[in-house]
Amino acid sequence: MKPTPSPSSAPSLTARELATQPDCWRRAADAAAGAAGLPLPGERVAVTGCGTSWFMAQSYAALREAAGHGETDAFPASGFPAARPYDRVVAITRSGTTTEVLQLLEGLRGRVPTLAVTADPKTPVREAADEVAVLDWADEESVVQTRFATTALAFLRAGLPEGAAAVASAAADAARTVADPLPEAALAADQWTFLGSGWTYGLAQEAALKMREAAGAWTEAYPAMEYRHGPVAIAAPGRVVWAFGALPEGLAAEIERTGAMLAGGGADPMADLIRAQRLAVTVAESRGLDPDAPRNLTRSVVLPH
Questions:
Q1: Bridge partners of 132?
Q2: pTM for the whole thing?
Q3: Does the keyword Repeat apply (predicted)?
Q4: In CA terms, which of 71, 222, 242, 272 is 20 to 30 Å from 210?
């Protein structure tokens, strides 16, 4: 049976927050102009974070390297190779209190210039990083990250060649995707797989995470070229394969032959992520779950000393 949330219920906090992303991205592009601490062309850069922030780090790293600005790696803060030489490290942390991020920045102090991108300036990250970019207008009350993550990516993306124009275009697409009807078959599915290539693989991972966090759903994410190497076995009628950006030649036809629904595309991949966020919220509500307060999660992971 297709999930049908009650039309009389008020939108969740997460739903209201994710709808503000187009304006957040425009502000981020303005903030990036002349911002201190952004990576310079030719620098060898590492980008880090935890959870959602790590996925945004992956997307930015792929964008920067593809733009020819220099070698750029992405690592979870807990697995950062601290002995590896870099010219600059960028940390994405919404709360500014995440233990692994703070420990990493403190360990790099005096050895590598660091930039923290955060939503809250009144946290320990201000002292841990050399430079801090505060995107406080994109902060959230919900535990689930939506607009801060994409706004941090918009800020970093805007600092690349032609990046401000790309963010403006993404914001225009996003203004449409915040209200476009979601495919009914995607809402009624029992399994969702997200695919991406290059910088959009981080977005695919984030879309899958949103579905798991908010809706407790069976979701997976893969690089698009790797999908043929095993994961396509789970494609079937009643399941969804959602692509961020163009698919490799021939893959769309292979997916369609399985009977799975092929979704995504047609907009800037960042804007398409908003549709996936909306899908997560809608499926969660159809299952009687609160998308603002996922099970077993807190706003920030602060570990005991």
A1: 116
A2: 0.92
A3: yes
A4: 71
